[in-house]
Structures are given as C-alpha cells and as structure tokens.
Amino acid sequence: MKLQYTLEKEDYENKTMFECANSEQFKKQLTGVQWRVPVIMGLLSLYYLLYQEILIIAIIFFILAVLWYTFSPRFFINKAKKINIKYSKEKYHELFGKEFILEIKDDSISIENGLEKIEFGFETIKKATRTDEAIFIQNSSNEFYIIPINKITEEECKDLLNVLSEKIQDGIHIQLGWKFDNKYLK
C-alpha cells in the first residue's frame, strides 16, 4: 500500500498539540498549576481568618483561590497552544507543503518526504490514534507521524486503518471529536 499526501502548517500544529496533550509531563504541570496556588491561597485565607481575624483579607484570598482554580487551566492551555504553534513554525517550516510518500510493507512502514526516508517496523509502533483530522502513529522513541485524513481518499483511510489494526498489537485508538481544549476543560 502506498499513500501520497502533503502536510501543511495546520497539520504540524495539530501534531504538536496532540503530542502535548498526550504528554505525562503536560498533565502533571496542568494539575500542579491548578492545585498548588489555590491550596496556598486557601491556607493564607485560613491564617488571616483564624489568627489575624481580618475577615476581608481572608475572603479576598478565598475568592482568588476559587478564581485561580477555575481559570488557570484555560490560561495554561492557551499558553501551551501559543508555544506549540511557535514550535511548529520553527521546527517544521521547511516541510510545509512537501509531498510525503507513506509505504506499508509486510513488516514495516516507510515514510519519505524528499529530505529523508524513515523506515520502522510494526513492532516499534507504540500507539496509533485516529482523530477527525489525522491518523497519528507513535513509535517507541515517542516520535509522532501524521497522516492527514482530508488529504487521502476515504478508501485509502479505511485500508490504512485496517492494516494498522491488524499489525499493531494495541490496535487503533479512536478519538473522534478530539480538540486540544476539549480534553482538559471538562
């Protein structure tokens, strides 16, 4: 099976967002940002309420803790989006608009883009995920490869998913409706 497609700036932005969203480090940072500051503010609120007996400052710290808990994930995610978009432009700008050729052989996948040719076996694939926009293949060294769904035919997409589900031990993960914001702001 052989597929030809081009990757644009938006495809690489989706790739970096997807990598970020599936990163354990990002999830830990988001949880830390959301909980650390409100806990400190809550403790300060209790301190001013119980020991200093200044009700207004205690209320202010409590309100700030609630506001931080509510809005900090949105701020953190928007900041991550900006960083990932900038990263995509810097790292992949020479690949925008390039034609890629993906070839599936009996025991490996080959991806060629005019600059380099990458080949890896099915046993090295850690995970394959289908979203509305693309199929992401993650290998054992945590590199993600993109196959944009809107640039291949529906028949090619079905064939690719069938081959991947047969060859990959873990199968295909389906995340239709996936957006970077929706995953974390529920």
Description:
The chain is of the alpha+beta class and 186 residues long. It folds into 2 domains: 2-8 and 94-184, Roll (PH-domain like); 15-93. The protein has 5 helices and 8 strands; from the N terminus they run βαααββββββαβα. Strands 1-2-3-4 form a 4-stranded antiparallel beta sheet, with no helix packed on it. Strands 7-6-5-8 form a 4-stranded mixed beta sheet. Strand 5 and strand 6 (134-139) form a beta hairpin. Helix 2 runs antiparallel to helix 3. The protein is elongated and about 75 Å long.
As a percent range, the share of helical residues equals 40-55%
The count of β-strands is 8
Low-confidence stretches: none
- Provide the residue-averaged pLDDT: 83
Shape: elongated
Spell out the key features of this protein.
PH-domain like, 5 helices, 2 domains, 52% helix, alpha+beta, 186 residues, 8 strands
Quick overview of this protein structure:
Helix content is 52%, strand content 22%. It contains five helices and eight strands.
Write the layout of secondary structure elements.
Blueprint: E1 2-6, H1 9-21, H2 24-50, H3 55-92, E2 99-104, E3 108-112, E4 117-121, E5 125-130, E6 134-139, E7 144-148, H4 154-167, E8 172-174, H5 180-184
Parallel strand pairs: 5-8
Antiparallel strand pairs: 1-2, 2-3, 3-4, 5-6, 6-7
